[in-house]
Amino acid sequence: MHYLLLYLKKVFTVDCRALALMRIGIGFVLLVDLAIRTTDLEAHYSNIGVLPLHVLFQYVWDPYLISIHAISGLWQVQAILFLIAAFFAVCLILGYHTRLVTIVSWFLLLSLQNRNTLIGQGGDDLLRMLLFWAIFLPWGRFYSLDARRIINLPKSFIHFSAASVGLVVQIMLVYICTALLKNSPEWHTTGTALYNALSLDQVLFPVGKLIYPYPVLLKYLTIGTYYTELYLPFLLLIPVFNPFFRLIVIGVLAGFHLGISLTLFVGLFYLINWVSLLGLLPPVAIDWLETKLLPYFQNLGYRFKGYTSKIPLLFEVRAVWHVSPARREEVSAIKEGFVIAVLLYVIWWNFSNVPQVNHPLPPAARWPGMLLRVDQHWGMFAPEVFKDDGWYILEGITTENNHIDLNRNGLPVTEKKPESVVALFKNDRWRKYSENYLFVNNSFMRPYFCNYRLRIWNEAHRSADQIKELQIIYMMERTLPNYQPIQPQKQVLCICGTQ
């Protein structure tokens, strides 16, 4: 047991300064996410949008989900909740009452995600899990307003606990499980997965277009991606020269996500992964950052305490508990036990999804995951890449029988493929929504989106020719091997009107 504990400390110890950098990064990600979502307050979170509350509860809701965002269908109420979340995100960046702020930010995030799961993606799961593990980590000990309350900052920067194990294991699970879920030959045998991914115009960026014509390169990149995801995370478990191997993992994965961000439209997924890697930085890297890149801010935790000591705070939250040392140890043991239990549950949840195990989580065991929102699925382009691609035409028929495309700002309808399909999406939330919109089991979504787009167009063009009928058309292109030409197939998904 002693040697096991020594091993665990060698591979799962984290630097509190690295955690502080991750905290600041996550705070900024929360603000960016809120800013993007704010542009669709009415569309995605109100009763006059694409997912009214009664539809959410009838078709999407899980009985164990919690969401204060579901208390009202008014966009004004959502705006207030968004402002509250933004305030706590700023407090998280500043490290002000960090643990309390982390708990509130985590709760507000899962509440927001639960309000509309039809626009969620893998990055949302990772962001939510990073905040969950951080509740039990001392990521407010440095580079924070909380540091000014500490009379003597700890001499040791390193931290080991069940939560530090959870953080490292969580990052490993993202890559290992997505590789295990990619059990199609196109990933590890034929090497055609990246060709198929770059054939999807809905997510294709210009850099992706540059490498798309080179099948041999795409094959090597595909197989390299698969084995990188599958084996690279295990370097984190090597006890000797662990800081060196951590830096290798961080460098490779940072470059990996940079490549994804330049070639494919994946929203904030790459940014969230970058931020997660900050928490893995070993002490040698943080020491270098403090002494080389930031010479004027060496030992930032101490300096920040001094610089902010005279800054008046708007309010203070003080709570004093007189707890005996024995009681404190008992509470700490309960906390560690809870974190260990959640970690084992998360590992069970993840590996129950992979085909190599083929033992799905029993329905009776799913409720803790849904309640705490530690549920997760890393099926990015797994088990194989979608072959159905295409673009939307929102064909509006006006009262004067003109046919215009709402998706192209009212230009005449044409079935010609746009030069950039990805440019038709306002943001990645709408791209994900449009992807879910296609599935037959999500057909309930279609009339609400149709009526929403018709209504907002007519409201914005009251003095112009009004739309009396709207058709949601999908021009489907089935990806064929070896760059074979594709003939789009026209599919009318929904028709709605003003009468």
From TrEMBL:
> What membrane topology is given?
Multi-pass membrane protein
Question: What GO cellular component entries does it have?
Answer: endomembrane system
- Report TM segments: 20-36, 73-93, 126-145, 157-181, 224-241, 247-272
Name the InterPro entries for this protein. HTTM-like (IPR011020), Sporulation_signal_mat (IPR052964)
Q: Does the keyword Transmembrane helix apply?
A: yes
Ranges of residues in domain HTTM-like: 11-285
Q: Where in the cell is it found?
A: Endomembrane system
Q: Does the keyword Plastid apply?
A: no
Where is this chain primarily localised?
A: membrane
Question: Which branch of life, at top level?
Answer: Bacteria
Q: Give UniProt keywords alphabetically.
A: Membrane, Transmembrane, Transmembrane helix
**What is the official name of this protein in its record?**
HTTM-like domain-containing protein
